[in-house]
Amino acid sequence: MTALVVFDIEAVPDFEMARRLLARADDTPDADIRRMLGERYSRAGEDPATAFLKAPIYRIISIAALYAKRDDGGGPWTVTQIGSRSVGEKTEAELLLGFVKSLPVDSRGAGPILVTFGGNGFDLPLLRYRAFALGVPVPGLHGGGHRNYWHRFGSDHIDLCDVLSGYGGSTKPSLAEMAALANIPVKIGGVDGSQVEAYVEAGRLTEVADYCLTDVLATYCVYLRYEMVRGDLRPAHFDASMDSLRAMIQKHIEQWPLLSAFLEGVATSVDPLPRRPRGAN
Known about the structure:
Elements: E1 2-13, H1 15-22, H2 30-41, E2 58-71, E3 74-86, H3 92-102, E4 113-116, H4 123-134, E5 157-159, H5 160-164, H6 175-181, H7 196-201, H8 205-229, H9 235-251, H10 259-267
Parallel strand pairs: 1-4, 4-5
Antiparallel strand pairs: 1-2, 2-3
Helix pairs in contact: 1-2, 8-9, 9-10
């Protein structure tokens, strides 16, 4: 049995760390620290107030994940679990450790394949940086599960953004762009990554966690499509894999009402291989 874990992280600047980095007093307002960070790291034409910073500057707010499995010989993927947690429910260290401990290990001691969208540049390094900052042992990410998640060109961690762009050979796509290509619902509820800091500041952590989960579901759909296109997933197995995803989403509609909109979008997605009429040339 092969296990797969698709995950995504939402994060905001770690102002406590930033005060030390910038040599500022403990009572320096967060807004001032954010402005100074933006001025330090923003690129030409980028608004310093919202500039994306280096991964070590961030702390984890939410982790969402989807767990799936299939037979070693191939066949469809079966979704076994989905979930999303935030620092509104647990401490950051508990979130991080809980996620790593949740990674399944098979009878041979092998961990799961990890799938992300942009994870080589942010999500995976962020787990390492935050484990370092918090003093949390995470051997499962460092070969403990007989997987090398840090090899960019390997198959133990598949960063779809990296792979689909030819590892930067062409301009890297966004998740929204890949989703639009395949009619996959994304950014349900009108939230996107640029709003996460404002939502966290306003205490809207549940909405951030929900947004994180919908990104994971969209990433999984992109992964299935990619696997079908490259021939690792037969069209019939793609359909069965999508049916398993729909069933899991339906099971959790009451817990995450936002998923009803995602389910509707998936239900109307375009057939990946339109069937030609009998006798057509």
